[in-house]
Amino acid sequence: MTITIATALQTESRNYREELLTLQDEMQRLSLDLKQLLHDIHTTLHEDDNDSRPYCK
Asked: Residue 3 domain-assigned?
């Protein structure tokens, strides 16, 4: 029975590790997406500042 519990714990530990790596990859991807979005927003706002078209800001 002890071997069965140990094996189950090892399997669970492996599963949690794999899930953690997957979540870390996803967080990295989302971080890059957010950085790109912020860059795009900043660029758009900067372009709007240089826009000479008459309109209300």
From this structure: yes
Domain extent at residue 35:
1-47
* pTM of the predicted protein model: 0.64
Residue 52 predicted with pLDDT over 90: no
9-41 b/e (C-beta count within 10 Å ≥ 16 → b): eeeeeeeeeeeeeeeeeeeeeeeeeeeeeeeee
- Residues 21 and 31: their CA atoms lie apart, in Å, by 15
16 domain-assigned: yes
Instruction: Give the pair of three-digit tokens for residue 21.
Output: 């790596």
